[in-house]
Amino acid sequence: MTIFDSILLGFIQALTEFLPISSSGHLVLTQKILGYNLNNLIFEVILHFGTLFSIIIFFWNDLKTIFLNFILNDKKTKQFIIKIIIATLPASIVGLLFKDKFIYFFNDLISISIAFFFTGLILFSTKFIKKNNAKLSFAIAFFVGIAQVFALFPGISRSGITIATSLILGVDRKESARFSFILAIPILLGASILQFKEILMLEEFPIYESSFGFISALFFGLVMIKILFNIVYNNYFWIFSFYCFFISIITFLIR
User: Fold this and answer.
1) What SS3 state is found at 134?
2) How far, rounded to the nearest angstrom, does the alpha carbon of residue 182 sit from its chain's CA centroid?
3) N or C: which end of the chain has fewer CB within 10 A?
4) 208-246 burial string, b = 16+ CB within 10 Å, else e?
5) Are 185 and 52 in contact (CB under 8 A)?
6) Residue 100: how many other CB atoms lie within 10 Å
7) What span, in angstroms and rounded, lies between the C-alpha atoms of 50 and 40?
8) Would the pLDDT of 158 be above 60?
9) CB distance 99 to 152 below 8 Å
């Protein structure tokens, strides 16, 4: 793998992690098309660290406020943290219990094709939402968490399905996006830590090239977060469904 390849994969990771088109599905496709002989889950950890840091940097003021208000025993802040925990638990539990089972889907392009199509359907459904004035309740946080379980399958977008679920349940567009991004922090951090042991066990791993992938994912991640916020706020979220339908067909054809 060249430095250019690493930067390209970092860009693709950022593009597909934050735009609702599935980062895991696109990394599998990219590595297959470009012919990389690489463990998908291992390299994805490096890129996820890049996008994780981009979220932390973008929401630094929010996270700092949440931390300070938590220390000051602010009721709303504590409720928000509980909602994050509620939404995090389902995917965390399923991911831990069935981790080895999900590896199969990273090598099955038909499953990924179906997952892309499913993501497209979910995104397209947001086109018909008229009202978005509901508050982010504990119940809604739970349903967002259940939806996030599906994102364990490559081809199903985590940002897509969590934001769409919030929108479908009537949550404000800006709050739906904000909750989804902050929710990504414990998920990405937990997944990265679980897989980090495998990186350390590898006899050979392109650390130099991977560092460029990390930096690329970090930089482009910041750009993509800003873009997605504008897309969600202006009610263009559903447009990505057409791309998901298209990539679903492409994935099926090259299987």
Assistant:
1) strand
2) 11
3) C
4) ebbebbbebbbbbbbebbeebbebbeeeebbebbebbbe
5) yes
6) 7
7) 16
8) yes
9) no
> 181 falls in which pLDDT band (50, 70, 90)?
very high
Residue 189 belongs to what domain range?
3-253
Give the number of domains in the chain.
Answer: 1
- pLDDT value at residue 194: 73
**Any long-range contacts for 91-95 (C-beta under 8 Å, 24+ apart)?**
91/145, 91/148, 91/149, 91/151, 91/152, 91/187, 92/186, 92/187, 92/190, 94/149, 94/152, 95/152, 95/190, 95/191, 95/194
Instruction: Please list the residues that pair with 164 across neighbouring strands.
Output: none
End-to-end Cα, the chain, rounded Å: 23
CA distance 71 to 255: 52
145: part of which helix (H) or strand (E)? Answer: helix 138-150
